[in-house]
Amino acid sequence: MQIHHQTYIKANPEKVYRTLITAEGWNAWFTDHTSLYLNENGEGKITFSWSSYGVKKENIEDGGDILTAIPNKLFVFQWSPGEGKTTVKFELEQVKEGTLLLLEETGYTTSSKDLSACIGCATGWGEAMTLLKMYLEYGIVCKDDYRF
């Protein structure tokens, strides 16, 4: 099972990429707290945290290795939303004055836990890509009050 999303963002690839490689960037549209370490080889670690998330008001932490970071082109990391690790890939492509952002998540199995995680992440990534677009195009920062 795989997840695929894409969106066009009226911001250059440099701006989109900077948002993906900084904790401040992720915190503006995706998490309550992100810690991120990226070395000069484009590898590192990323940890995402959410407080009182969702209907159940859960505290969630997830993350893993950053596998690839190619400036203004590609950002790839692993995390574990289901039974095992999945790989999330963001590809950035310059289109006119903006960026076509392609997201792909792979690695889900057919277990019931992974199926549930895949459905949740497919929905979540769709919302997240919209939040990223709103942040980069209009400067709207996602605050706790706006999260479901």
Largest sheet geometry: 7 strands, antiparallel
By CATH reckoning, the class would read Alpha Beta
CATH superfamily: START domain
Number of domains: 1
Main structural class: alpha+beta
Q: What letter string, H or E per element, gives the SSE order?
A: EHHEEEEEEH
User: Which stretches are low in confidence, meaning pLDDT under 50 for 5 or more residues running?
Assistant: none
CATH structural architecture: 2-Layer Sandwich
* Helix content class: 25-40%
**CATH level 3 topology:** Alpha-D-Glucose-1,6-Bisphosphate, Chain A, domain 4
Query: Could you tell me the strand content as a percent range?
Result: 35-45%
Strand order of the largest sheet: 1-7-6-5-4-3-2
Mean pLDDT: 94
Number of strands: 7
What Rg is obtained from the alpha carbons, in whole angstroms? 15 Å
Distance between the termini: 26 Å
By DSSP (H or I, 4+ residues per run), the number of helices equals 3
Rough outline? globular
Protein name: SRPBCC domain-containing protein
InterPro entries: ASHA1/2-like_C, START-like_dom_sf
Family: Belongs to the AHA1 family.
Pfam families: AHSA1 (PF08327)
